[in-house]
Amino acid sequence: MKTYEFELFLADDPRDLDEWSGAVLAAGGDDSTCAVISEQLRVRFHREAESLEAAIRSARETVRAAGLSVLHCQIEPEDMEAWQVA
Fold it and tell me: Which of 15, 27, 34, 46 could form a disulfide with 21 if both were Cys (CB 3.0 to 4.6 A apart)?
């Protein structure tokens, strides 16, 4: 299995950062970093999985279990380069 890095952008949530990031952690997101950048809720994952698709699906389910909604996923070019080397 590989570890895939990517970021999920989330819909607004009335909870503050500590509350919703705690919910992500409690839902199984111990491989994530939560942030609000330019008023945009984001969760960066370092998810181990058989494939990129499986990693993103699993992370999306973690976020949904925390009561949040995913808007889209973003993958940086340098992250993709790291997957090819590993």
Answer: 34
